[in-house]
UniProtKB/TrEMBL annotation:
GO terms for cellular component: plasma membrane. This is Permease. InterPro entries: DUF318, UPF0718_permease. It is a multi-pass membrane protein. It is found in: Cell membrane. Pfam families: ArsP_1. The chain crosses the membrane at residues 12-37, 57-79, 91-112, 118-137, 240-258, 270-287, 308-330, 336-357. Keywords: Cell membrane, Membrane, Transmembrane, Transmembrane helix. It comes from Shewanella oneidensis (strain ATCC 700550 / JCM 31522 / CIP 106686 / LMG 19005 / NCIMB 14063 / MR-1). Belongs to the UPF0718 family.
Length: 358
């Protein structure tokens, strides 16, 4: 066998083993810590906070986006929930921009792969542009480009709630059957009398037949929480691992087989169009940041400009064709164009600004 080919294969295999082990351990550790954090910051709490329309909502939305490990497409269902909760438009858009770009896993990968300075620069740019874009779009009145259908479920729910309230007893002393045992073993109904009549029935507590977690000691409940988070972490890793390992494999292949001169000629520091081209190419690729970062590491080692890498990562993680298709059910074309414009502007500005700062 050709000695040069053997050398390339060895370099590829060594790089794959190193990156796969390093990024797997990093993903599991950070994902587990994020899972523990999400035990206290649930999606319901995030939605409740973003429903507020005060001035702090923009920064809070960016910070919450930075701890939620959503990809560009998985942000859409959450966005629909925010719309139906009548969340502030500006903070909602900040969350839409920031969530797929900022999470502890991505920042951890940046730190390990490119260093702390690059990770801080990426974090500041992604958060800063997300907040500015959300604020600007709200002030320009882009909320009018949300489709009316996006609010329909919330309005129907409110209507149903009003109909349900209309059947309530007209007198506070009326007795109506209401369930007092809500266990999975059965539901029984007994008269419930309002307290204004002087009668207050004792509360009835019930447990599911097989669920006695509420009477377990605190130590056991804590152990169950830690175990539950670990299971979720492992499940998330199994879902992400194909993307992660594909990115590692592509990066290892580039590292071992693609000539350095080829990368330098078409994506090096001297190529002025490399940054906007990388930003535009990134969107249709739809590569998760967890996959594109190890891929980019190999490109950098081969001579690709870091500014171009930054544009590629933001473009691929921040938007995708699939996400645009999903957004069509929520936004009109003007809003979708603005969304893509923000992602492209963020990617290109980050690429050129990186060259000026560093």
């Amino acid at each position: 066998m050709n000695p040069e080919l053997i050398t390339m294969l060895k370099e590829t295999a060594n790089m794959f083993a190193f990156l796969a082990l390093e990024l797997t351990l990093l993903f599991l550790v950070i994902s587990y810590l994020v899972g523990m954090l999400q035990e206290f910051v649930t999606p319901q709490k995030v939605q409740s906070i973003l429903s507020s329309r005060n001035g702090k909502g923009y920064l809070i939305a960016a910070l919450l986006g930075s701890i939620t490990p959503f990809c560009s497409c998985s942000t859409i269902p959450f966005l629909k929930g925010l719309l139906r909760a009548r969340a502030g438009f500006g903070p909602m858009m900040v969350f839409l921009f920031a969530s797929p770009l900022l999470n502890p896993i991505i920042i951890g990968l940046f730190v390990v792969t490119f260093g702390v300075k690059v990770a801080v620069f990426y974090f500041v740019m992604a958060m800063g542009v997300s907040v500015i874009a959300g604020f600007t779009l709200e002030k320009l009145g882009f909320e009018r480009y949300i489709r009316k259908e996006a609010y329909e479920q919330q309005e129907l729910g409110a209507s149903a709630g009003n109909n349900k309230q209309s059947s309530a007893p007209s007198s506070c002393c009326d007795t109506t059957p209401a369930p007092v045992a809500s266990s999975c073993c059965g539901v029984t109904s007994e008269p419930v009398t309002s307290s204004c009549c002087g009668t207050q029935p004792a509360p009835v507590a019930s447990l599911c037949c097989d669920d006695r977690s509420s009477i377990l000691p605190p130590q056991v409940r804590t152990e169950h929480r830690w175990l539950r988070v670990w299971r979720t972490t492992w499940k998330d890793f199994k879902q992400v691992s194909p993307y992660l390992f594909v990115g590692v494999l592509l990066g290892s292949f580039i590292y071992g087989f693609i000539p350095t001169e080829f990368i330098v000629n078409y994506a090096g520091e001297a190529t002025w169009y490399a940054i906007p081209l990388a930003a535009v190419i990134g969107i249709p690729l739809y590569i998760r940041a967890e996959a594109v970062i190890p891929l980019s590491a190999a490109l950098v080692q081969k001579g690709m400009a870091m500014g171009s890498v930054m544009a590629l990562i933001i473009g691929s993680a921040g938007a995708s064709i699939t996400e645009v298709i999903l957004l069509k059910s929520i936004f009109k074309n003007q809003m979708i164009a603005a969304f893509l414009g923000v992602i492209l502007a963020m990617a290109i500005a980050s690429g050129f600004l990186y060259g000026l700062v560093f």
